[in-house]
Amino acid sequence: MRYKVNRGRVRLTASIVGAALATLAPAAGQETTSAQAASQASQSAPESGADGTLVLDAVVATAPGGDGAASQSRPAVEGYVANSTYVGTKTDTPIIEVPQSVSVVTREQLDDRNVQTLSEALAYTPGVEIGVFGFDPRFDSFYVRGFDMTYTGIYRDGLRQPASPFAIYKTEPYGLDSITVLRGPSSALYGLGSPGGLIDMTSKRPTATTFHELQFQTGSYQRAQGQFDLGGPIDPAGVFSYRLTGLFRDSDTQLPGVKDNRDFIAPAFTWRPDAATSLTLLGGYMNSLTTGNPGFYQTPEGELTHIYSGDPAFGDFNQNQFRIGYAFEHKFDDTFTVRQNARYSYVSADAKYTQIDYVDFATLIANRSTGRVIDHLGTFGVDTQLLTRFSTGPIDHLVLTGVDYTYAQYNDKVGFGSAPDLYLFPAQPAYGSQFILSPEYSYNVDQLQGAIGGYIQDQAKFGPLTLTVSGRNDWVSTKTNDRFALTETIQNDQAFTGRVGLTYLSPIGLAPYANYATSFVPTIGTDAAGAPFRPITGDQKEVGVKYQPPGMNGLISAALFDITQYNSLSQDPANIAFQIQTGEVRSRGFELEGVVNPLPGLNVTLAYTALQQRIIVGDLDTVGNAPSGIPAQSFSIWGDYTLPTDAVLPGLGAGFGMRYIGASYGNDQNTFMNQPVTLFDAALHYDFSALDTRLSGLRFQLNATNLFNKQYSTSQAGFGYWGQDRTVIASLRYRW
């Protein structure tokens, strides 16, 4: 079961635990054929960086162990424009040749916007809907092409980040080099997943040159934060290198008595004994503290109030997570390369919350209840890949074969109880002044899941044409033990998924493409008659075009898509304690993205999404309607400019962004609307090296999110949420 606190209520819906306990996807490696490298290099031209100095367009550098950058040596991207990605094909391929819609949010863009959450990082990416649940510091929740990603589509370094109802990994953006969004079904390579796509995050890794950074931040809600990033070779020969990234934060939030505290540390170590072999160890630990309920009371008539539904007396959400894994690669010769990636990860979550069930406005008394959820999730995954290069006449092949295995163990304990009434005096209610007892547990379930998948992909290149064909079969077995009911169920699922895509790379930088892809994710649970649910599946048809303007560092892309998801779950109208599997959702849309560096020191991103989503099969009162909370249109633009060295105020720069979130329906019955809203973000920064060379590496930055403090709300499935208020953060960074 999935438990989600909504404005002082608890909503219980069946969770896709096949995704909650989902198989870790195979590790994403990288490889570049000589033809791909030549194509990529021919599209790259010298450009000027933000400080006016001449830099080369971001091209994948050759690294020991392969023709392209090794999977454990992925180079950081300079600027905003990424030219290659391993996510779309699990091989290092120019983005313009990937037959699917791809976006990359680079480290420089993350720094310029000083993003604090994964959701913020994706705010300017097409096809991604953030803020569907308003301001919620507990989780990074977002949709891609109208489909939920929280449980089914989050990856780190090519491996799936597991999730359960409350044991959901939280992401610290400071620990990332980049974020890649692959839109559309990706099961043909990654296995279990959403038809909307996936989000893959690349961790910071050891650097070939010495690098040090210290940063301090302060701002809204008594924020105090310090962070560091250190890396470089350990020995003169560079056989050993390291990276150590950390962050510590103490902060309040816009919610009464609610913290947003975090401790994060991520070590990495690389060993390269020779030019053909490399091993990188990647670790991480994070502890976070916030609230178990970010919601506000909503009246029975549906009016969202400003009465906070939680209570700091019984409202802490404590989460601990860690991961340890490795990425190994060995190149035998120019034909064969083998890789093996593995990771063990563990998440524990203890969420306490109160909720207001009813308010008597005549007496100003709020009746309340409580809940507590304790989740533990441990997952081990190992993935082995073989890359093979060969030619058949004029056709060059890059064949990827792989097999992965995952074992996941999960426990979910839940209890519900009552809390003392809260007196809502005309002044601020007395939050935190009453003792609230933790409830007894009434639900305790263990789940074990084993999954194995085998996959193969061929990238066949013939002149300007690249045909990409991928196929995979998954076998998943899940055992569920109910400790209270003393029952045990075993469910077995298997499915074949595939993708076929064709790209034409024209001599003028235009690359039209088309693809067809399918998705698969098993479900856990039964209907009221005890019958198990079928896996949720999906398919997509997509056509698009990508363009790299000659002589300019930039990438412009557009896509049309049509996705259908089958076997969706919905509430049983005859028995609200159960669900039925009759759902079918169709998502059609258009996406446009531009990421360009048109002038020295100027970076611009633009994104537009038009989405038409409909419930094709479902409850009688929802068939033909649009799923709630997903805007039909969205538009964003962000630009950052730094004055050149010959300007009046060299080193001074500013950024400005606008985000338009279109209208959407507030419930699946489509009886009321969420109004459109336009939000603005801004940045101001100064590089002190322009003032004095002895201050080289020192930078001040000021960022504001929701600059004009627009008050707005949104509803999803009939539950209302308030949006994020204005947040201002000042930072001082020193690099040497």
Q: Quaternary arrangement of the chains shown? A: single chain
- Proportion of residues in helical segments: under 10%
How many structural domains in the coordinates? 1
Low-confidence stretches: 6-73
The shape is: globular
Structural class: mainly beta
In CATH, the topology is named: Maltoporin, Chain A
Largest sheet data:
22 strands, antiparallel, barrel
Report the count of strand segments: 42
Examine the secondary-structure arrangement and name the CATH architecture. Beta Barrel
Write the layout of secondary structure elements.
Layout (H helix, E strand, L loop, with lengths): L1 E5 L2 E5 L3 H4 L13 H9 L4 E2 L5 E2 L28 E2 L7 E2 L6 E6 H7 L4 H4 L6 E3 L11 E3 L2 E2 L5 E3 L2 E2 L15 E8 L3 H4 L6 E7 L7 E9 L3 E11 L6 E11 L10 E14 L2 E15 L4 E3 L5 E5 L7 E16 L4 E25 L4 E28 L2 E29 L17 E22 L2 E18 L4 E18 L5 E12 L14 E12 L5 E19 L7 E21 L2 E16 L15 E10 L9 E10 L2 E2 L7 E2 L2 E11 L10 E8 L7 E4 L2 E4 L4 E9 L1
Parallel strand pairs: 11-14
Antiparallel strand pairs: 1-2, 3-4, 5-6, 7-13, 8-9, 9-10, 11-12, 13-14, 15-16, 15-42, 16-17, 17-18, 18-19, 19-22, 20-21, 22-23, 23-24, 24-25, 25-26, 26-27, 27-28, 28-29, 29-30, 30-31, 31-32, 32-33, 33-34, 34-35, 35-38, 36-37, 38-39, 39-42, 40-41
Family: Belongs to the TonB-dependent receptor family.
Protein name: Iron complex outermembrane recepter protein
InterPro entries: Beta-barrel_TonB (IPR000531), Beta-barrel_TonB_sf (IPR036942), Plug_dom (IPR012910), Plug_dom_sf (IPR037066), TonB-dep_rcpt-like (IPR039426), TonB_sidphr_rcpt (IPR010105)
